[in-house]
Amino acid sequence: MELLYTALLYIIQPLVWLRLLLRSRKAPAYRKRWAERYGYCRNKVTPDGILLHSVSVGETLAAIPLVRALRHRYPSLPITVTTMTPTGSERALSAFGKDVQHVYLPYDLPCAMNRFLNTVRPKLVIVMETELWPNMISALHARKIPLVIANARLSERSAKGYGKLGKFMRRLLSHITLIAAQNEEDAARFVALGLKRNQLAVTGSLKFDISVTPELAARAVTLRRQWAPRRQVWIATSTHDGEEEIILQAHRKLLEKFPDLLLILVPRHPERFKDARDMVQKGGFSFTLRSTGEIPSNSTQVVIGDTMGELMLLYGIADLAFVGGSLVERGGHNPLEPAAHAIPVLMGPHTFNFKDICAKLQQADGLITVTDADSVVKEVSTLLTDEDYRLWYGRHAVEVLHQNQGALTRLLQLLQPYLPQRSH
Fold first, then answer.
1. Is 337 a catalytic residue?
2. C-alpha 225: how far from its chain's center?
3. Angle at the Cα of 379 (from 364 to 238), degrees rounded to 5?
4. Rounded-to-integer distance, Cα 286 and Cα 281, Å
5. Would you say residue 235 has pLDDT above 60?
6. Which domains does the chain carry?
7. Is the Cβ–Cβ distance between 131 and 53 less than 8 Å?
8. In terms of Cα–Cα distance, which of 79, 188, 173, 63 is closest to 129?
9. What is the spatial distance between Cα 226 and Cα 83, in angstroms, rounded to a whole number?
């Protein structure tokens, strides 16, 4: 099975290059740093530390509190954060700055993976959520390097797919040191695939372990005073193709009732900033771009959030938030970031990436489901008109966040045996 998998990976490499080139037409970053994708990263990393892999933006955001805590506990250990996408890369660099080293994780080819591990020589490897790369897992096992899957989740669909791999999957799982699952459901699915109980812990979701720092809160207050001291503001974030049209359609109707309303629109991927700008322009809205640093005037109707790493700040300006990837079938993005600011959260019906979190928020009156432009108009109007109702939803959203924290502390305890003793 491994041989077949590896042979296929080598065969499809020309297609991989083609895909990178095609994607680079919209996002030029895909054309850069190809050597890293084959394990060439000498002089870019200091070896003998912790390697943490987060495939893309969502996982990188969930890893922020973990990386900060590891930095604090083990100040002398270098931390290398790897991602697979340029957006994940930008997010890692803007979140951690000089605190960590960053390179792409190479493709799961034995030669590339061994070249990479020879350079990085990690003492511990942490993979966020569920990225199971067979050759990477085998190489780490052969080198006796502990591998922990943190914040692990396994959907029913993925479990079914993995289940078809039978013995191969069981052997793969036996080479993983520890899986720290988000909840009992995920844990049960791993056990059903053949993971032994002593390789498993349930820690809860790291995504709950976010907080609004006093500095961030102060910056948000300042920005709100500059942008909209006497106006109401709503924000639509992480939007995908097909969602901006719906949001702008809703905003047009909302402006009839709330002529001073300001919308902050933040597309999920940088390559879509231009599309969003074209749509806003074509719709005849008066707008500014966040990247210019220009302060919106009283007549500005839309601010396009075309910067990286500012989402938590922009949520702090808004009275309520719509979180994208949920009106189209992308599975939704993280509703806990706006919840941390105690503002109401709206999402479409497609939230399978955050099923557990969305269920908790919904049960507690912290999340409102919308399905189209009309329902967005209806719900946003009610929230803007009725302050008590708005505060009620915001308060419940942040309560859900606080009630479910603690995964980070539990995970750090589990990682302790694999890291050098802390010097006090």
1. no
2. 29
3. 80
4. 8
5. yes
6. 2-209+406-418 (3.40.50.11720), 214-403 (3.40.50.2000)
7. yes
8. 63
9. 36
Output the six-digit token pair for 206: 């790291």
Task: Quote the tokens at residue 148.
Answer: 């922990």
Please report which helix (H) or strand (E) contains residue 356, including its range: helix 355-363
Residue 248: how many CB atoms within 10 A of its CB? Answer: 22
The phi and psi torsions of 67 (rounded to 5 degrees) equal -65, -40
CA–CA dist 419, 355 (Å, integer): 33
Check: CB of residue 136 under 8 Å from CB of residue 59: no
- pLDDT at site 422: 64
Q: 55 is written with which tokens?
A: 């495939």
Instruction: State which H helix or E strand residue 338 sits in.
Output: helix 336-339
For residue 246, the number of C-alpha atoms closer than 13 Å in the C-beta half-sphere is: 25
Please give the Cα distance from 31 to 21 (Å, whole number): 6
The three-state secondary structure class of 142 is helix
| Residue type present at position 148 | V
CB 204 within 8 A of CB 183: yes
CB under 8 Å to 413, separation ≥6 — which residues? none
Does pLDDT of 78 surpass 60? yes
Read off the pLDDT of residues 185-204 as tens digits, 9 standing for 90 and up: 999 999 999 999 999 999 99
CB 244 within 8 A of CB 264: no
Catalytic pick among 36, 59, 129, 271: 59
**pLDDT tens-digit profile of 304-358?**
999 988 999 999 999 999 999 999 999 999 999 999 999 999 999 999 889 889 9
Confidence band for 423, pLDDT divided at 50, 70 and 90: low
Q: Output the average pLDDT for the chain.
A: 94
